[in-house]
Specification:
- It is a single chain.
- This protein is α+β, with helices and mostly antiparallel strands and 139 residues long.
- It is 22% helix and 38% strand.
- The chain has one domain (12-137).
- It has helices spanning 12-15, 34-40, 86-91, 125-137; strands at residues 21-24, 29-32, 45-52, 57-63, 71-77, 80-84, 101-108, 113-122.
- The chain is globular, with a radius of gyration of 17 Å.
- The relative contact order is 0.20.
């Protein structure tokens, strides 16, 4: 047998296949995993939300000026970074998930911001396990 030692505690990017991800939590809190934090250079600071309603894509622009109109605070907790976007989601009638919803986060040079495509939700590992479990038990 060949075993691989697990040494990636707290590295959610590894679980997401190394991709930067953005989670939207109950209450409208946005969270970026450690992969996004590293790739986009995220740190305590400020951001501004944008929304392309035709394509259902959220844009998050990192800004230096806390006095810029529409800024929200970015906060670091451990290896992740969070910001509150409940009012943004409600304003644009974007459903706030009952459970955590995860999406790939990508940098757009064209727009100078992080993009989160709401049409491309990452399946929850637990829901996939439940699907496999249910399929197995119905045989």
């Amino acid at each position: 047998m060949s075993f691989e030692k697990f040494t990636h505690h707290g590295h959610s990017a590894r679980i997401a296949g190394g991709r930067p991800t953005c989670s939207i939590r109950r209450g409208g809190q946005f969270g970026f995993n450690s992969g996004a934090r590293r790739e986009f250079g995220l740190k305590d600071g400020y951001a501004v939300f944008y929304y392309d309603s035709a394509n259902k894509v959220i844009g998050i622009q990192i800004v230096d000026n806390k006095d810029e109109e529409g800024t929200v605070r970015l906060r670091v907790r451990g290896s992740n970074i969070y910001l509150f976007g409940g009012s943004f989601l409600r304003y644009h009638n974007i459903p706030i998930p009952a459970k955590v919803a995860r999406y790939n986060a990508v940098w757009s040079d064209e727009h100078g911001m992080i993009l989160v495509d709401l049409k491309r939700k990452i399946p929850n590992a637990n829901s996939k396990r439940r699907e496999i479990f249910d399929e197995y038990n119905t045989r």
